[in-house]
Amino acid sequence: MSVHTTQVGEIAHVELARPPANAMVPEFLNEISAQFLALAQDPMVKAIVLKGNGRVFSAGMDLKAAASAYDAAASDQLLLGFNRAFGAVYGCLKPVIGALNGHAIAGGMVLALCCDYRIATNTKALFGLTEVRVGVPFPEVAYNIIQDQLPSTTLRRLIQFGQNISSDTALAWGAVDESAEPDQVVDRAHLKAEECLSIPSRGYSAVKLQLRGQVIERNAQLIEKENDRYLGHWLDDAARQAATNVLEGSA
To answer: What is the pTM of this model?
Structure first.
C-alpha cells in the first residue's frame, strides 16, 4: 500500500507513501481515490489532513513510466486514474487540509489544489503545473479543479508556461494559504483541521457544496461515464519524448 491512513481523534491523516517522490501511477491513484471515498463515508472521521512522506508532497506523474511503460490502453487508465483520484479528494465534503511538506509539481499540485486549505513548507520546495513541458494537456477533471481554485492570472502564468514557483510566490499568487517551517507544516495542518471541528459538520458540507457543487457534479459525470476528451491520444510519442527529455535534463 502506498497510501497510509492514521486517525488522531476525529482527524484522519492520509500520507502519500510512494518513495522517492510520490510519483503517480494508476495503482497509486486508485489507492488515493479509494481512501478518500471511504473517509467521506466514515462517521468517525470529521476532518482530513493530506500529506506526503519524506521531503516531497508529490512530483506528479511518474515520468519514467510515461516515457516507456504506457501503451494507449495503459495511458487511458492513467488518465482515468487521475480523474478518479482528483475527483474523490476535491469532492469530499469534509474539511481537507493539505500539508505540503515539499515539492508539489504537476499532478501533485493539482492534488494540493483539491484541498480546502493548503499549508506549504517555506523551504526551497517548488510548486507548479508543468504539464505543458511534458507535452500533455490536463485531464478534464484536473482542469476543472485548477480553474475553479486559482485566480485567473495565476492560472494563466502556471499552466501556459509550466514554470515552478517558490512557496513565497505561491502564497502571494493565491495558490497556497500559508507557509510554515518544515517541521511545523503537519502540525499546522492538524491545528487547522481541529479548528474545522468547531464548525457543525452539516453546515461545513453544505457550504462546501455551494462553493464546489457545480464542478463536483461536472467531474462526477466525467468519472461515471469514464469520459475524457483526451482518451486515446493523451500520451503520444511527442509526450513520451518530452518526458524523456525532462528526465535527462534532471539527471
So the answer is: 0.96
